[in-house]
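Progress report, Aim 2. The chain analyzed during this reporting quarter is listed below.
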Amino acid sequence: MSSVRALAGQTALYGLSTMVGRMLNYLLVPLYTILFAPEVYGVVTDLYALVAFLNVIYTYGMETAYFRKSADQPEAAYNAAFWSLTATTLLFTSLLLLAAPALARGLQYPNHPEYVRWFALILGLDALAAIPFARLRQEAKALAFASIKLVNIGLNIGLNLGFLLFLPWLQSMGIALPSWLYQPEMGVGYIFLSNLIANGVTLLLLLPGMPRTFSGFDKALWREMAAYGIPLLPAGLAGMVNETLDRALLKYLLPGTTHENLYAVGIYGAVYKLAMLMSLFTQTFRTAAEPFFFQQAKGNAAPALYARIMNYFVLAGGLIFTGVILFLDIVKHFIGSAYHSGLHVVPILLLANWLLGIYYNQSVWYKLADKTRYGMWLSFVGAAVTIVANLALIPRLGYAGSAWATLACYFTMVVLSYYWGQRHYPVPYRLGRIAFYVLFALGIAAVEWQFLRHLDTAAVWLIRIVLWLVYLAIGWWREKPRLSVT
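Predicted structure tokens for the chain:
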């Protein structure tokens, strides 16, 4: 099997847990947007955006450091990364639990310190599972990885349905439920509690593969891994600024009351989910590609291979981009009608996430060239663009300003990453072909948005299907000869 086809196979298996699994989670969005008003759903959007920052701190680049060192010293690298994260996770989680009341007040949720406590435990369980999951990826055990992830997702969905639908239904039928099982006033808290329970079960499933003692801990190797991974921490934090700060800032920069601002955060968070189809594809690909890129790095043909993979990624991203925009009238029903006022930012967010995926593909150069400081600087530049653009645009454009800021950030990072990457680790990207796919997709989006969007006839739907199939056919025609020999 060729290397590209092997990557495609791994991506498909990871996609079972990531793409398909998250799609199942994605189906919870209609439930949330029907049960909860935008200002209530805004709490969910707000808190999960903040958790993304803390996730980076909890893992501080150890996953990437493990991938880098595991090729030569798999067991020693695994032990060093696992025990390092275990020690720091216990420390960070303890601090958050102790500071929960004060943090809840600072986040403007003074009556819910339990939210902070639950998220502290969610973060801790996620961090403890990070290296065992990374080992499954490194050893190409995609089926085991997918199975455990799907258990997590299935349990989380089941608990959500139980807490938010089944138990309230039982209560409405006159069945008395004990307070330890169900408290109606908890509301969105059940979303967080479901996440916590699912993470706990996941860690139990990973337990058999975890080291039992410190006997294999190599201090010298740990120092090397820390020196490699920790510089990725500020880059990761800056990356989270780029990915999630917009949702966190909206609550503070919009001119309304906290209630009104959370309403806008809720709408933005819901329509962002419609753009998550692109993000899900990007994350699925990244999960499979990161260890694959390291495994292929020793071959002389690696740069040409990375260039071909970029072509396929951009083509696939264009299919998602055009598909969501052409069929947005269908896709929009995944969120409640109260949230449809935010649909105008979906194309911007889709394009931004497509660019983020292109950046992830490019970022292989500074990891393989051991120049992770460039990753840090790229993220810092992106963070600066994000902060400045959000501060400038949110007061003027509302949450649409956040969408444009996200797009500006990722466009800047793609351009700079390409420029620096070609100087330090040249990859022969076919820029003309990449530009063709992007511009062709943008042209289709423009036709939809300007001419077809407000029409609802059988002929218009036929035109949409034809446009999408034309994009697919041209991409297949251009790439099939190269795919057959890779």
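The chain has a mean pLDDT of 85. Residues 142-172 form the longest helix (31 residues). These observations will guide the mutagenesis work planned for the next reporting period.
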